[in-house]
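Field notebook, page 474. I keep forgetting to write these up properly, so this time I am using the form the group agreed on. The chain and the ligand, zinc ion, are recorded exactly as supplied. Prediction of the bound pose follows.
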Amino acid sequence: MTAALTAPGSSAVVLELHNGEMPLTVNDLCVTNARIVTPQGVVRGSVSVLGGKVVHIGPAQPARQEVDAGGKLLLPGLVDLHVHFNEPGRTDWEGWAHGSAAAAAGGVTTVVEMPLNAVPATTTARGLALKLAAAQAHSRVDFGLWGGLIRDNRADLSDLIAGGVTGFKAFMYETGDPTFPAASDGVLFTGMQALAAAGLPLLVHAENSDLIHTLMGDLQAAGRSDTPAWLDAHPPVSEVEAVARVLRLARAADCRLHIVHVSLPEAARLIVEAREGGQQVTYEVCAHHLILTDQDFLRLGNVAKCAPPLRSQADVDGLWELLLTGQIDTLASDHSPCPSELKEGNIWQSWGGINGGQLTLPLMLTEAQRRGLSVEDAAQLVARHACQNPARIAGLSSRKGAIQVGLDADLVLVDPQAVWTLQESALKSRHPWSPFIGRELVGKVERAWLRGRALYADGAVLDNVRGEWLRPVS
Ligand SMILES: [Zn+2]
């Protein structure tokens, strides 16, 4: 028998197949015997990979390399839209090599990196070029880059857009970083108009700066520098008010908005209401806001200092209600490392940020099961909120975010039954501090592949694949 296959629309490409046997394509990789977490549900079978893409999900196909998953979970690589890798300029804080290694070890195969905490900040074309060069030289995972919208760089936005940023990040809260001053309402509004015209999202850190700094001033004048003072300086109204305000500004500017690290159900509900009213708005919740409480902060101190701060048990429970009803868009780490000594000093002096880029997957699997989800439902929750939704929001859905034929073969093999205690030695960060040290976790990343190539195995990040820059598809 002879079969002639003609490519549609072309008479030039004709393949003739003889002898009644279809030729077998030998794929690059086949991960067999897995519980595969797909957008359609968890299916048992094999994932075949050729040329860096998933080409088949189902029965095993011949491949040069076969990996028996032993019935464990196979998830899509996580897409973390909120990491700070501090390079260029502060490579000694983390750097792309360490930060992306931590990501890889945590099953994160794509990051979109924040425009601040590197020097220079990514607020000019030059800043973007330097950031891109550092990432291309050292990233082990695929990456996009957020640009910064700050007080005085509106003239730079068009260069940054042309340069290929994924979108922009702005602060309503003045952090004190002179390279990344907060955007006033006027800068936010006019910046939003420019981004709306370019079709890019604005990510916003929504806290009321004046309110917080006034309270901080009063607390400091009263001699307060204890741990609870940080909570007193960031009351719920400081976040809720800023979220309400930025929603109004973005609606008037018709700009796509993504609010980062929402820590309060009350703020989240404002966003959900705006979305139900037709506004293009999404939001992120970080793993630490879903797991740790203000009581943990009072116990742990500086190592758990972040902004917005850790909130009450009732708030954490409220966020879980929203997550379990599909009303939270993305889970992220807000990985914000620094040298350990910068976590010392009093509460005002200590660096604010959580080093968690490696931990989103095991933390969320553990906590979701503790709250009663089955392991497969927990895995699907992670796949939806830490893979699929962030890929869509960053404009990466044509390549990332799901195990699906035609998408990049970014795969993470997880042993859902592994029970382990987090030690510093497991963290790939340059400075392996974490508020989660000593915590018992259920579920462990065993292996990860980036575009079908082995990225992580047996506790080690492998050196045979480099991260690629993911420019937004226009
Ligand atoms: Zn951040």
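OBSERVATIONS:
- Residues 375-393 form the longest helix (19 residues).
- The domain at 77-409+416-461 is CATH 3.20.20.140 (TIM Barrel).
FOLLOW-UP: compare against the apo run.
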